[in-house]
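FYI - complex with zinc ion, inputs then prediction.
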Amino acid sequence: MLMQHIHACRFVYNHSLEQKIRAYEQHKQKLSCFDLNKQLPALKKEYPWLAEVNSQSLQSANKNLDNAFTRFFREKKGFPKFKSRKNPVQSFQVPQHYRVDFDRERIRLPKIGEIKIVFHRHFDGKMKTATVSVTSTGKWFVSILVDDGKPTPNPVRFTSDTTIGIDVGLTDFATFSDGEKIANPRCLKNSLQRLKVLQRRVSRKVKGSKNRKKAIKKLARCHEKIANQRNDFLHKLSFRVVSENQAIAVESLNIVGMQKNHRLAQSISDVSWGSFFSMLEYKCERYGKTLLEIGQFEPSSKICSRCGYINRNLTLSDREWTCPDCDTHHDRDINAAMNIKKFALQDQNLIGISGAERAVEPVDLSQ
Ligand SMILES: [Zn+2]
C-alpha cells in the first residue's frame, strides 16, 4: 500500500507536468495547482488504481510540482523534471489526518493504517506535512514537519574577526580563511573504491539475470552507505562551522562547470558541496548566524589577499605562490578562502557600512 502511494504520486506528478507543458505549448495557458487538482477525479476514472490511495497525497504531488515551477521562475533553478521510478529515493506526502502514538510506537496513515515505527526523537508542536520515503535498499522513513511555535532568532552581529571564509576544492574538501584544512573523510575514499568494484560487477552480469539483481542490490547498499557517511560528515562539519562563527562567507558554486564533469569522485564532491551549503544555510537561520554568499569571480585564488595583486601566471598545479608585490607567501586554497571572506565583507556595503570601516565595525543585520 505504501509502494502504491509512491507510484500513484509519481504518476500524478508526471502526468500533471505533461499537462502543464502541453497546455502552455498549445494554448499558452498556465495550469495552476487548482486546475490540476480539478482533473484528479477524471484521472481516477481513467486509472481506477489511483482511487485506492489517499487523494490528499495526490494533491500534494500537484503542489510539489507547482513549487518546482515557482522555484524555476523565481530562483532560475532548473526546469522541473519528470520523476523516474529509478530515483534512489522515492517519496509521497501526507499533509494531514495522520496520527502519531509515541507510547505504542505507531503511526496511523490514512488509507494505509497503523504501522510500527522507531522514533528518532520525540517532538512537541503542531504536526504539518509528513513525508514517507523509501530508499533503494528498501528502508522506509517518515519525516514529520513540526511547528514548535518558537520564533527564529534574530541574526547576531558579526565582525571581521567572527566571520570565516570557506573555499571548497578537490584536493581538500574545504579550506578555511583561518588556515584550517578539512580533508575528505577517509572512509568515503574507501567506499568509493568499493563502489567502483561493485559497479563493474553489475555491468558484467547478464541483463535480467538473478545474479545481476543481487549485484544491483549490493551496489545500492554501497551507495546508501556512502550517502550516510557523507551526510554524517557534512552535518558535523556544518554544525561546527556555524557554532564557532557569527558569519560564514562562501562562493556560490559553478553549477554549469560541474555538470560537465562526469568523474565519479568529482560528482560525489559536487553533491557534497551542494548539500554542505544548504546545511550551512538552514543551520545559520536556525542559530541566528549569517551566510554571506558572493558571486563566482574567476580569480579568487589568483588575487593576493594581502595587497590585491593579481597573479595571472598562477596555474592549477601551483599549490603555493609568493606575491611579487608584497612578498607574502600564499597557500593557494587558504588565500582563496581569505579572498572570499574579504569580498563578502565588502559586499556588506549594501547595508550602509562605509569602505574602510567595514572589516572592523560590527554589522547589525536587525536594522
Ligand atoms: Zn601581495
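Residues 210-244 form the longest helix (35 residues). The longest strand covers residues 126-135.
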